[in-house]
Amino acid sequence: MNQSPTNFCPVPVEQQPINEYQELKESWFFSWVTLSKWEFARKLFWIWLWSLLISSPIAAASFPPQKMTLIFLIASGLGSSLFVAFTLIRLYLGWAYIGDRLKKTKIVYEESSWYDGQVWEKPVEFYYRDQLIFKHQVEPMIKRLQKTGVTLASLMSISFVSLLLIQNFT
């Protein structure tokens, strides 16, 4: 009888990197990264737009909209951008964790609770399969999140510098 590699894996099913990847990919929140570029951007825009409900009153307390309209708008936008940044960080951490587990040759897992951690070395077939999944599925998502984060940080930096310049000239 030929034993398949999945028959001798001691790692619980829910802790196997391939299953963790599949679960993350199918989850409501983490699947955003798998959407088209415009659909992903639309999700982030909605977060930015809804977070204006929180950031605008805070900005209005510091910069009265009637007197300092432009500064108020920039400050509100910056505050909302923080929510988008937190969202990107959470997405990145989730995908980076799975990527790390897929890349490693050894898997740390728990059999029944926190105090009985075990380490299992992946067979070559598992390792190669996980490397392929990482290289072709997870790594592009991580790179997309990194590019989006750099773009957001750049926009926030420009907004912040603009805010400082406007304040100094008024």
From TrEMBL:
Q: Domain of life of the organism in this record?
A: Bacteria
Q: Looking at the Swiss-Prot or TrEMBL record, what is one Pfam family this protein matches? A: CGLD27-like
Q: Which UniProt keywords apply?
A: Membrane, Transmembrane, Transmembrane helix
N-terminal signal peptide: none
Membrane spanning segments where? 44-63, 69-93, 150-169
| The keyword Transmembrane helix is annotated on this UniProt entry | yes
Q: Which InterPro entries match?
A: CGLD27-like (IPR009631)
Q: Which PANTHER family match?
A: PROTEIN CONSERVED IN THE GREEN LINEAGE AND DIATOMS 27, CHLOROPLASTIC (PTHR34214:SF3), PTHR34214
Entry protein name: Ycf36 protein
Q: Where does this protein come from, organism-wise?
A: Cyanobacterium aponinum (strain PCC 10605)
Traced from the root, the source organism's taxonomic lineage reads: Bacteria, Bacillati, Cyanobacteriota, Cyanophyceae, Oscillatoriophycideae
